[in-house]
Amino acid sequence: MIFLIVDDNPRNLLVLETVLEKAGYQVITAHDGKEALSILETSQVDGIISDILMPVMDGFQLCRTVKSIEHLKEIPFIFYTGTYLDQKDKKFALSLGADLFLTKPLEPLELLRAVQDVVRAPPTSKPEIPSPPEDQYLKEYNVRLIKKLEDKVEELETIQKDLSESKKKWQSLFENANDAIFIIDETGLFLNANKRAIQLTGYSADALHHLNFSDLAVSPPLPEYEKKLQQVLKGEDIPLFEGSIQARDGKEIPVEISVSGVENESGEIAYIQGIIRDITQRKKTQEALIRLASFPEQNPYPVIETDCDGEITYMNPAAREHFPELPTVYKDHPLLIGLDTILTILKKGLKKCFSREIDLGDTVYEEKIYYVPMTDLIRIFAFDITERKHMEEEMKKRLMKFRLKDGMVYCIPEKIPQMSVEAFKDLLLVGYHGVVISRTPEKEFKSLYDNSYEFVWLAEKGGEKAMPPRLRTLEMKIETLPLKHAILLERMDYLIFKNGFSDTLSFIQRIRELAYIANHIIILSVDPSVLEENELKKIEKETHSVERMHKGNLSDDLLEMLQFVYKWNAQGMKPSYTDIEHELNISKPTARKRIRRLIFGGYLTEIVKGRRKVLKITEFGNTILMS
To which H or E segment does residue 565 belong? Predict the structure, then answer.
């Protein structure tokens, strides 16, 4: 199907042509009624869409002519106008035989629907409207034309009024702008200047009229300044540049300069407009930032900066030394795992800083993560806490009954909360901050274990001390906790009853991520008698089981080293670190790592002899070997 579209505005033609072609129609274009009639003499079309207000021959004349020609009058004719909007205009247009009168703009689908309704209608469905007599047509046509001219005159008067108001606004903006604005001629002489320009330079408006811009410019050098002036006069765009000007009192002021040519009606440069911004404070800030930039470079601890997608934007020398693989591994590196979740917490304002521990095998780091809203960047600081972690682990081995690791969620199936409370006690004993979330009333629970910990009572009602058993509320509570908490979630069966098993299982999967990120240890106590066997298995699959600590057990490699020291000591000798490396054929880092573990565990003691460090087995170490 072929459409002839007629409009003197190229942009309107392009829009209409695009809409019709995308709908599968072929399109022929014309810019006025006369050109459209010429096309109709040689081309067959299935529909005509025409504007009204056009030069040479307008839409009204085109429609009347088309409907008067026998072989053309059956072609559907649609007016699509943005100027003739009166109901009388529509009535007159339809009286000429038009099939449809539409006003601009319409949504593409709405326009297509209206056009399709007209072209698909059978020829007999529309009653034939007799064409008005010539005198009646001319009278009504002139009325429409005069009305449109009156509208145009009124529109021009409104435009003139708007221009006058715009001029006043421009003058107000010019005078009250925060930046200095100068108007100069093609030689650089000042023609006008605003208040800020007078304040910046210290010259009065009259004094400036007797000066050239070159009298104020310090930098760039005069030849470069004159070159830029010639470029502007040729109509070239000059990028923003920095320079300096000299005020009346002799003070040199650093500035940012923007210059552009203002054309007259003939397209020639009439004058040049210069906008000058005082950047004294910016320069001072930049100097301060340069000084501050040296701090992370000299920091002995790793400092890393990323964008919100985890792309690394900066690593200081310490970070590049400790984590050379980070730019390659990217988000899969333990330092960046879970960054999306952490960023969500920081953006909500739940925490100013997010801390967690990252175990990289031989080394453990405490990672502190900050979100900087001003730059929309993430800053990460890493501190080596390996020694401290070894001491903590050894303390756990000595004091705790259960083997519990940071960042883990444990499930204890039990009808009465006994083992879970004992495990929770263990964690508080070695310094963890504790939170108990329980269905059991506080007094009743504290009869089982009374110590310093936060207690949250799960209840639909109960005032400020009660928390409703909604999973999202519990999740938010865990999100807001600082690093490294022991969390006992007692009576998980109650949460399952209130929220359903499927949602509760999803909740366990989500808090597992929170535990990992914040190094929490979460203990879930659940009554297995109220669950189906497969339900308990699904929970156990998402969690870890709690194991009792077997005190005194050493790995084979540590036991081998302990036996080696024992043999030397039995012969009256104390081996050095180097002796152990050579005799056991292990690397220096591995030897030192194992020795530290044995010292922290109380199995060995270190004795300094001059520059050498030698080792002696302790009574506790002897006891372990004997057992």
Answer: helix 556-570
User: Domain span at residue 333?
Assistant: 299-384
Residues 66-72: contacts with CB within 8 Å, 24+ apart?
A: 66/37, 66/40, 66/97, 67/96, 67/97, 67/131, 68/131, 72/40
- CATH code of the domain in which 598 resides: 1.10.10.10
Task: Identify whether the C-beta of residue 47 lies closer than 8 Å to the C-beta of residue 11.
Answer: no
Please tell me whether residue 360 adopts helix, strand or coil conformation.
Answer: coil
| Spatial separation of the C-alpha atoms in residues 150 and 102, rounded to whole Å | 22
Alpha helices by DSSP H, 24-74: 33-42, 59-68
Distance CA 456, CA 442 (A): 8
The rounded distance, in Å, linking the Cα atoms of 115 and 95 is 19
Domain containing residue 478: CATH number: 3.40.50.300
Same domain assignment for residues 583 and 460: no
pLDDT band, residue 126 (cuts 50/70/90)? low
> Beta strand pairing status for 312-315 and 303-307?
antiparallel
Tokens of 117: 């309704």
- pLDDT digit string (tens) for 590-625? 999 999 888 877 788 888 877 788 999 888 788 777
User: In this structure, what are the phi and psi dihedrals at residue 6, rounded to the nearest 5 degrees?
Assistant: -125, 120
Would you say 304 and 335 are in contact if contact means Cβ atoms under 8 Å apart? Answer: yes
